[in-house]
């Protein structure tokens, strides 16, 4: 079946293409009778306007590029779902890129977004150490606004929406110290990235404020994955002193910790407490429900979309940085030490 075009509508209604276009777009310069005739003709013919052609003519595509590091971790799947839903409410479409924490892939997606003339980009930065982020300068040069979500790159300023990661780690560490835990090890990604360093900052501040002795050896660096948590636990258990608790920078890593402890018949929380960060949807359903820090995902995504669209419509507005309040969630994987 042939596609009905605006030319077909104009010909059938016996008007010019320009008049048909103005009538379909509700322009006041077209009289009421002509407008009604064009609209009725379009309906009878089954005409559907080409939204993208119209938007390109106005130099807007109403498409936003979204880059997340992976979707194996449900945390980023939730971000994708919420961002897409928020953008749909505002009549924007999403072009998704999954970088797999690779800077080269992130660069490829940014270049693709530029070619596709997206109106803006929402970006979850990579956790790689000292990455080359010159591709973000390309967005700035082309005046394509972008907004960080969950964390940011230090060297390229832009709007950012994230949870106060330091405060979340502080509250969790403080709770453990107050319930008798002394040796609390923390498994994080490389500390050159804010997503990792901010968590460690809160952890260290809780030790300082509590007046409890701390050793730098209690901080372990690993990839922020299930495997990273599992393998780090193996190293921790081979150390000189058995820890009172193991913290991880996300829930997926904590699940790796729990698996290794169970395989070695180490009881949680009787022998050791374990806690994560994020509060993924299934953490209450684990065999040992996980103590964690909840990030307000819906609020984070909604705010990031609002800020980006405001930046698109008002390019001169300031680069806003929003820190959302985390919430400590206590479950069965932690217990007081005696």
Folded structure, characterized:
- The chain is α/β, with parallel strands linked by helices and 338 residues long.
- It folds into 3 domains: 6-49, 434 Repressor (Amino-terminal Domain), CATH 1.10.260; 63-163 and 296-326, Rossmann fold; 165-295, Rossmann fold, CATH 3.40.50.
- 43% of the residues lie in helices and 14% in strands.
- The protein has helices spanning 6-13, 17-24, 32-45, 51-57, 74-89, 103-115, 134-141, 165-178, 194-210, 226-237, 251-263, 297-313, and strands at 63-68, 93-98, 120-123, 146-149, 160-163, 184-188, 219-221, 245-248, 273-275, 292-294, 321-324, 327-329.
- The strands form 3 sheets. A 6-stranded parallel beta sheet has the order 2-1-3-4-5-11, with helices on both faces. Strands 7-6-8-9 form a 4-stranded parallel beta sheet, with helices on both faces. Strands 10-12 form a two-stranded antiparallel ribbon.
- The longest helix has 17 residues, at 194-210.
- The termini are far apart.
- The mean pLDDT is 91.
């Amino acid at each position: 079946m042939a596609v009905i075009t605006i030319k077909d509508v104009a010909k059938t209604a016996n008007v010019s293409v320009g008049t048909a276009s103005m009538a379909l777009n509700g322009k006041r310069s077209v009289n009421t009778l002509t407008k009604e005739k064009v609209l009725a003709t379009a309906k009878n013919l089954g005409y559907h306007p080409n939204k993208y052609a119209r938007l390109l003519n106005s130099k807007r595509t109403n498409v936003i590029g979204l880059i997340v590091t992976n979707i194996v971790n449900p945390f980023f799947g939730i971000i994708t779902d919420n961002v897409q839903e928020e953008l749909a409410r505002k009549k924007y479409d999403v072009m998704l890129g999954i970088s797999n924490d690779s800077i080269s892939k992130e660069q490829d997606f940014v270049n693709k977004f530029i070619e596709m003339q997206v109106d803006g980009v929402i970006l979850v930065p990579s956790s790689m150490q000292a990455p080359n982020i010159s591709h973000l300068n390309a967005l700035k040069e082309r005046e394509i606004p972008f907004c960080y979500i969950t964390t940011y790159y230090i060297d390229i300023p832009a709007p950012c929406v994230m949870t106060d990661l330091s405060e979340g780690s502080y509250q969790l560490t403080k709770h453990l110290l107050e319930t008798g835990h002394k040796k609390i090890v923390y498994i994080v990604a490389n500390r050159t990235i804010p997503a990792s360093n901010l968590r460690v900052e809160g952890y260290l501040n809780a030790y300082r404020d509590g007046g409890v002795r701390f050793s730098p050896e209690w901080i372990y660096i690993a990839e922020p994955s299930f495997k990273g948590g599992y393998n780090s636990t193996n190293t921790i258990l081979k150390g000189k002193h058995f820890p009172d608790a193991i913290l991880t920078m996300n829930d997926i890593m904590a699940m790796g910790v729990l698996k290794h402890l169970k395989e070695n018949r180490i009881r949680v929380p009787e022998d050791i407490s374990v806690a994560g960060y994020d509060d993924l949807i299934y953490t209450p359903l684990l065999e040992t429900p996980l103590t964690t820090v909840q990030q307000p995902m819906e609020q984070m995504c909604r705010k990031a979309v609002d800020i980006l669209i405001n930046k698109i419509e008002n390019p001169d507005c300031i680069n806003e940085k929003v820190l959302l309040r985390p919430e400590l969630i206590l479950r069965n994987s932690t217990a007081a030490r005696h």
